[in-house]
Amino acid sequence: MADYGMNEAAKYTTAISSLALRLGAYVFLRWHFPPAILALLAVYIPSFIYNFVHTSPYEVVADELDIVAREPPAADEDAARRREVGEPEELDDGRELVVEETIVLEERDAQPLKTLLTGLPSPTSLLLSALTFTINLALVAMVCDLTWRGTFFHQSHDLSMARTGYVAETSARILVREPDARQYPIFVSYRYADPPYMGVAAGGAPHDSAWKSGGSINWLDNSTDFTGTFALNRLASDTRYQWVVSNNHTGYFTTAPRPGHTSERAGTVGKFTFLHTSCLKNDFPYNPFSHTLSNAGLKHLATAVQGIKAQFMLFLGDFIYIDVPRRHGSTAEDYRREYRQMYASPDWPAASRELPWIHTYDDHEFANDWDGNTTGIFAAANDPYQHYHISVNPPPARKGETYFSFTQGPATFFILDTRRYRSPNDATNGTDPVTGDATKTMLGRQQLSDLLDWLKRPEAPGVRWKIVVSSVPFTKNWWFGAQDTWRGYLGERQIILEAMWDVGLKGGTGVIVLSGDRHEFAATAFPPPPDGKEEIIGLGPIGIGSNPLSPILAPVTAGLRTRRKRWPLSATVHEFSASPLSMFYLPIRTYAESSTSEDYLSDVCIKYIPDGNSKFGAVSISSPPTSDQSILHYRLFVDGVETWSYTITTPPDVGGGGRAKDAIWG
């Protein structure tokens, strides 16, 4: 019985550890969550061996017991003698009762389905036992391959690359990396990429397509991870250029149209288009037969961008995942390796050759849900971000800061830094329950002030859209990981929302928010409250009238003048949150409308699309000459296919607001 109990326990141990290992491997390879794969393997192997050795290939199909009375040999001789002499036989003749057991064995079935599904050894098939054991070993090998192969075999120290960064109306920035000293000095040249006659069509002189020098870099070293930048200046607006660097890299870009104008180029006449997304991870979904640094999302982007003709890509963070699936270090070199591996992807050149990229960071450039400001690992993580991204980003909104703004064509942009200045992610929503004031900040005092000033700022004629770019969602409808989004900073969010509604109150200019981070897509509307907001506008005489409480209220409210500001519905702000470009999407649904008021839904779901390993949005702005309203058309691409679209317009160019009240009671 002891052996039987031990065998059964071993079977359960083998089956459970095998099933857990397989499930864990699937979860790890599909979502990168870190189950204890190696620990499960350490349990599985000895239990499998024990079961393999102690599992009989036969089973009992019949077990019969027969009881037989059998005389001992001496008794048989005595009985024979008595019969010979004629003596009577004794009643107790001394016979013995013998129990005979007959066991019928039959060879067990190979149980192929049970063996392959549970990981238990087959009773009779060595091949099936070896196969199910190999399946589990292969799964563990794939987990190890995903976790360590890229780190140890693709350090990418020899990476040679170049890409286009920020492109303005008359200038462009080029990033180059070259560790091979034999290539120094590095030269850049550029030329018109448009056909010569396009200049004539626009009313100018024919373009000169001869190559022009854009400067040189004499030396690069490890202080910048062998990166450097070129600045191309005195370019023509709304014109396509080609550049080439002497270490054998080339690319294209189109300069921005003049502020307040859209493109006049063939194929994009009357439009201004750009892309946005976030979250990028090589070798996902995992394929053991693909290159370790292959990137399915970049492949989708490279295919789609040919037909979109975008000005640039706004990439909203998580360009690297230093801590997924496993952190391999926290030094500056560890972070540099992650950037090199992304740029070393064989799919990167096609996705960036004709598409400039503008970057901001999010948490995984540091650590998951980073709220440590500039402490700890910040300096090490910020080192490659400065060299690879900030160096060719737009100029900062304020010197020394990592948030920035710029204006191109019909839109002006403010790209937020949502990590460097934020208060800790605690269990609150960042709002005082009594006063409604903000108790936490995501932006910090100076960045918030600069953002509010930018929202109030009058723009050049024809600039009809203000676009706020946030690495984390502005809506509070995402409940999973909510404290890391603006849902954890609702007090400060309300200040920003009211400033956005004020833009719509004046009319003529629309406001949208672009975000990422959630590995899902959602479009959300933020309509202003229908009853507006009570504001104190100054001091003055109070009208007492017939209010019976006036004698009591008068000492408190004397001289108080208020008004109720009412925003028009056309001031509604819209958010489009799209990610990932190449990463997992969550198996559960994490977005749902929520409201703190029974009669006012502040965050209205327009569309929610959670599925898809690759998502990016295309924003196209046009200003029809027959209308005083500008049109913004949004298209969502999921796994390379256009899946959904939506169109909004700027508010009518009219004033608005509410009347001032001379008394509380009126």
TrEMBL record:
InterPro entries (UniProt xref): Metallo-depent_PP-like (IPR029052), PhoD-like_MPP (IPR018946), PhoD-like_sf (IPR038607), Phospholipid_Metab_Enz (IPR052900)
Occurrences of domain PhoD-like phosphatase metallophosphatase (ranges): 300-529
UniProt superkingdom: Eukaryota
SUPFAM superfamilies linked: Metallo-dependent phosphatases (SSF56300)
TM regions (residue ranges): 36-53, 126-148
CDD domains (alphabetical): MPP_PhoD
Alphabetically ordered keywords of this record: Membrane, Transmembrane, Transmembrane helix
Any coiled-coil regions, as ranges: none
One Pfam entry name: PhoD
Protein name: PhoD-like phosphatase metallophosphatase domain-containing protein
